[in-house]
Amino acid sequence: MPRYFTEEHEWIDVDGDVATVGITDFAQGQLGDIVFVEVPDTGAELSKGGDAAVVESVKAASDVYAPVDGTVTEGNGQLEEDPALVNSDPEGEGWFFRMTLGDKSQLDGLMDAAAYKAFCDAL
Amino acid sequence: MTDTQFTGDEAAIETATLPLDAWHRAKGGRMVEFAGYWMPIQYEGIMAEHLWVRDHAGLFDVSHMGQLALSGEGVAEALETLVPGDISALKPGRMRYSLLLDEDGGILDDLMITNEGDQFGIVVNGAVKWDDIGHLRENLPDDITLNHNEDYGLLALQGPKAVDALARLVPEAANLVFMQAIRATWAGHAIALSRSGYTGEDGFEISLPNEALTAFADALCAMDEVKPIGLGARDSLRLEAGLPLYGHDLTPAIDPAEADLGFAVSKRRRAEENFPGAARILGHLEDGPPRKRVGLLVDGKLPVREGAKLFDGEDEIGVVTSGGFAPSVGAPIAMGYVPRDHAVPGTAVAAEVRGKRVACTVAAMPFVPHNYVRKTGG
After folding, report:
1. CA distance A96 to A85
2. What is the mean predicted confidence (pLDDT) over A38-60?
3. ipTM summary value
């Protein structure tokens, strides 16, 4: 299952026509202690680069953007009770939402793991 | 000058570094621009640092704050023309929280005034220190000398273990009570310390020469109970303690009665009615101000932050001036301004966050009890 990354520090796992989206370990480290996550409603239509979710650390609220176009099929309900999952397991249990892929060709513009690591190292 | 910091023009002024800049970076501090300086927002994480201060002792670098001194014949009386506190009654070695007021009684800054015997020491907020200096110079008589001591840094050691840690370096620290100050010597350096701070915990502020800061900070952080703490936890600690932050909870549009800081308007000064904005402030203290600073307990987990509008039903009634997750409370809390008739603890209001209404309850402050030491040996 290929995993892609965005310059806004989201990851997207693609499995057929469905994708799972979260924020990267680098992102959670920058945000610090996460105390609230607002995931999109099921059925929400997302467009690439548009607001998709909000993650709140002790200090500030940050937007999470949709990495590609698509329709939300599920938000991670576990984050409501335990937002710190994003700190402890950002690229696993701490996923944000699942979505259909509206335009698979948009994945071509995203980074793979090696490119994303190089991107973070350069920051 | 520094008012550009409130207009988004800060990029026009080069961000300055504090004397401990390299020390913060070596300790893993994440540096951000604040009040014109690079300052550590956090080291290991705001939550852990916050809780550490409540249980142990945390070292804060507050060297961005302005350390001023006023001296000269009649200095107490001169200072009283600009603040509402009873400065003449302040005994040597004692300090008091006060407010610099404009002619309408609006708050220009909140500050600590210490009678140091031969002069009055004043510690002012970093973001407005240049404005404060200008205001003092403009409004004090020419025979009052104003000194801005940029050769000294300021550290705060806060938390229940602060006294044990500091007394190992400066034994006299243990003899002080809350809001008492002395001069002392450490490693040959002339220093000043007071039992004070802005976290709600017992603790101290220590003023010492820039060249001594690194060694002093290292000596404290070598102790098991002391860790460096960033600005992030300083903000959440003071919020839980119900202490207002200048530029957010206090501004020139707000007077001391509205800010619920009536204690800073001394009895004698009320009787004399001779401080800036006395008519407005005394009227508000007598009849109740039209709006008042209150604490807000937030239902649920969604943080309510500065700028959130407050509602009673469909009516917009006020605004949040500080807010966030409170680690020791375990929930979001906030501070804001509501009309007088909504200021009673228990009153239900709603805050608007991203178009949603969040239920809040007006609450008495502090949210976490203060642990000030008012008697030694107790």
Report:
1. 10
2. 95
3. 0.88
